[in-house]
Design goal:
Strand content of chain A: under 5%
Strand order of the largest sheet of chain A: 1-2
Number of domains of chain B: 1
Helix content of chain B: over 70%
Shape of chain B: globular
Shape of chain A: globular
Order of helices and strands of chain A: HHEEHHHHHHHHHHHHHHHHH
Distance between the termini of chain A: 30 Å
Largest sheet of chain B: none
Largest sheet of chain A: 2 strands, antiparallel
Number of helices of chain B: 7
Distance between the termini of chain B: 49 Å
Order of helices and strands of chain B: HHHHHHH
Oligomer: heterodimer
Helix content of chain A: over 70%
Radius of gyration of chain B: 17 Å
Number of strands of chain A: 2
Strand content of chain B: under 5%
């Protein structure tokens, strides 16, 4: 029943903005609605994560530990992103960048986006999961094109066409899996699309059919994950959208798409009787994505694009880790949680920086730590978290991945380590003058005022930081390991 | 679902419409060919419904008829007319080359179908993969956003046709969800095309190349 309440309230949250005309009232009402969604996401996800077992509602919803983890992450990041949207949008409206009627559209689409992500991860039916994943693209296309600039239109077009094409290819994976299920005779056609049924009978599926199903699912849904070489939409879309939307796109949407890929991995591994085939593909795509992201991070000129390429890097790393067996799966789950919290925190900070400097170019931004003392300090902390500096949970995940792979796949780990060095060098080269440099290379278009008042976006960033450090502590002490292992066990 | 005479003929018509599409350079011709393909899909659905006694296929056929034969082509043509888009579509590759690529795509689709399915399903599955590959060819070969949209619609037709041939029975709510996702996508695509046309007085990718890291 709680899942129904979560989905229903998420839907109502999309209707709330229609009741208000003034941006101040719309933002407040949307914040309240997102708080309720957050509370319900905890009520749905936490009991499952603590070991209560999967929760189902008829043949529609099914929440296992991985889905529960994503429900909690989506609930948390949508909450902080919606709260941080208030100062961001009110400032954009005040500066004349955003027209007042667009504020309502923003919140409607934001709520629909969250609803689509939640349906993606709690659906038992793989067909409904597909429909919801495509709906995430549809709900966010106009958010990517929100500023109606030429570059936003370009980003939105690429996003719409590339992601929809990818998801259409993913549908072929779904059809082949469904055909394999019905041909096996174990599962009737009517229940053939239910994950909870498929996962029980997958051992009897045709191996050759499931190999193709997985390839289509990996390439198709992998496009939405941002895997190279299908990634070209990602840096454009994530850098063109308003910052709180970028936080959701990078922090949780990529994980929702990865969730779809991993569902097919489980089925394929069962059909083949081994994970060798899927692991090999995950290692190949993960390593390629990591390398491509590292190359572009080194040469970035735009801080939102830097964060977008960093998302690609972390998704590539997660995919690689999922290809490394049980220890890799544990590392990937830790990476998933850490990246979701750190990256969304950084995008919220990037929103504050954009509002003050009116530019996303490194050349036009400098001395952020002094101009925006709260944002600058928190942004710096977020960067350290992202670069896996302890007490970041990403340190644990990267250490575990190296440990898991160094003996079995030394070449892959060597390439990953080289990519990390390049990424670290790229971040240091770009972020040090950005945060601490006294003068920007180019004159800012608008005069930059120093100082800032504490607002809800800073509180949201602090919450993310506390969660990151707290999660690190819980892993090191061993308290969070059963939870992480429960999620990882689904894939190993 | 087995394929027999009339169904194979309809599948052949679907394949022929797909083969002709890449070499067309006028928007109206492209859209009308897509319409013919959608009509053939409707015929395939109705014949299958009658042949196998699957009543739900009639509802799907009605939806496909309304959305893919009537609404979607009309939306594309209407937006093109309202925004003053050029009737002749710009391509990256010459039409003759695209025809050869389409032939190769059909060959690749047959090879893929041979690996995947048994003999009686071979032809419709090969047609499905041909549609997907030729749709993809249209997507990457057209500079025009209208041409890319038709390419995507055809790719989706291929996926839809594959669903009819390999998946025994897709739940109705999924079929309807897929069709309405497609409709929503086209509404968004046409809205974006209109904005691009208004901004640049051209709906081609020539003006959508600012975001590039290379």
């Amino acid at each position: 029943m709680m899942i129904n309440a979560l989905i229903f309230v998420s839907f109502l949250a999309a209707l709330v903005p229609f009741s208000f005309t003034r941006p101040e009232h719309t933002t407040r009402a949307a914040s309240i609605a997102s708080t309720v969604v957050f509370a319900l996401s905890l009520l749905v996800g936490v009991p499952v994560l603590l070991g209560a077992g999967p929760v189902a509602w008829g043949s529609v919803w099914y929440v296992d530990s991985f889905a529960a983890l994503l429900v909690v992450l989506i609930g948390t990041v949508q909450w902080t992103a919606t709260l941080a949207s208030r100062p961001f949008l009110l400032e954009e409206v005040r500066a004349g960048v955003v027209a007042k009627p667009l504020v309502r559209r923003y919140y409607v689409l934001l709520a629909l986006f969250v609803l689509a992500m939640l349906v993606t991860v709690v659906s038992d039916n793989l067909g409904l999961m597909w429909v919801a994943l495509e709906a995430t693209t549809l709900a966010t296309t106009f958010l990517v094109a929100f500023y109606a600039r030429s570059s936003s239109l370009e980003a939105a077009w690429k996003y719409l066409i590339l992601c929809s094409t990818g998801i259409a290819l993913g549908f072929i994976g779904l059809l082949l899996a469904s055909a394999a299920a019905s041909q096996s005779g174990v599962i009737s056609a009517l229940t053939g699309l239910r994950w909870s049924t498929l996962s029980l009978g997958a051992a009897a599926f045709s191996p050759s059919m499931m190999r193709f199903a997985f390839v289509f699912a990996l390439v198709g849904f992998g496009t939405k994950v941002g895997l190279a070489p299908m990634h070209t939409w990602l840096p454009d879309a994530h850098s063109s959208a308003p910052a709180p939307i970028s936080a959701l796109l990078s922090g949780v949407l990529l994980n929702a798409a990865l969730f779809a890929v991993l569902r097919y991995k489980v089925l394929t591994d069962a059909a083949l009787g081994s994970s060798g085939f899927t692991d090999g593909l995950l290692l190949a795509f993960g390593t390629l994505t990591l390398v491509v992201a590292a190359a572009f991070i080194l040469t970035q000129t735009d801080y939102k694009r830097l964060l977008a390429y960093s998302s690609m890097e972390h998704m590539g790393f997660m995919v690689l880790a999922f290809g490394l067996g049980p220890v890799g799966a544990v590392a990937a789950v830790v990476e998933l949680i850490g990246h979701a919290l750190a990256k969304s925190m950084l995008f919220l900070g990037a929103g504050n920086i954009l509002v003050r400097f009116h530019s996303t170019k490194f050349a036009r931004v400098a001395d952020v730590r002094r101009v925006l003392p709260f944002t600058g300090a928190l942004f710096f902390a977020g960067i350290l978290m992202l670069l896996a500096v302890p007490p970041s949970p990403l340190f644990v995940s990267e250490y575990l991945t190296i440990a898991a792979g160094i003996g079995t796949h030394p070449f892959v780990i060597a390439v990953a380590l080289l990519a990390f060095v390049v990424i670290l060098a790229g971040f240091i080269r770009l972020i040090v003058p950005f945060l601490f440099g006294s003068e920007s290379a180019e004159q800012p278009e608008h005069p930059v005022v120093r100082g800032e008042a504490w607002n809800i976006s800073h509180a949201a960033m602090v919450l993310h930081l506390v969660l990151l450090v707290g999660f690190f502590g819980l892993i090191i002490s061993g308290a969070a390991l059963p939870l992480v292992e429960r999620v990882a066990a689904l894939f190993s | 679902m087995t394929t027999i005479g009339p169904l194979s003929l309809i599948a052949a018509l679907i394949l022929a419409s797909a083969f002709l599409l890449p070499s067309r350079t006028r928007l109206r011709t492209l859209v009308q060919l897509f319409r013919v393909q959608a009509c053939a899909l409707v015929a395939y659905l109705l014949w299958s419904a009658w042949q196998f006694g699957e009543a739900h296929l009639v509802l799907i056929a009605a939806l496909v008829c309304v959305l893919k034969v009537a609404v979607m082509p009309s939306m594309l043509l209407s937006i093109a007319k309202k925004s003053g888009a050029a009737e002749r579509l710009a391509l990256y590759v010459r039409p003759a080359t695209l025809t050869f690529i389409a032939m190769a795509a059909i060959g690749a689709a047959v090879a893929l179908a041979r690996v995947l399915v048994v003999d009686h399903q071979l032809f419709p599955v090969a047609v499905s993969f041909s549609l997907v590959l030729i749709g993809f060819e249209l997507l990457v070969s057209h500079k025009s956003l209208f041409g890319q949209s038709v390419g995507f619609l055809m790719l989706e037709n291929g996926v839809f046709f594959l669903g009819l041939t390999v998946a025994e029975q897709m739940p109705l709510f999924v079929e309807i969800g897929v069709l309405f996702d497609l409709l929503a996508l086209l509404v968004l695509a046409t809205a974006l095309i209109r904005r691009v046309q208004e901004t640049h007085a051209s709906a081609t990718t020539d003006y959508l190349q600012a975001l590039n890291d290379l």
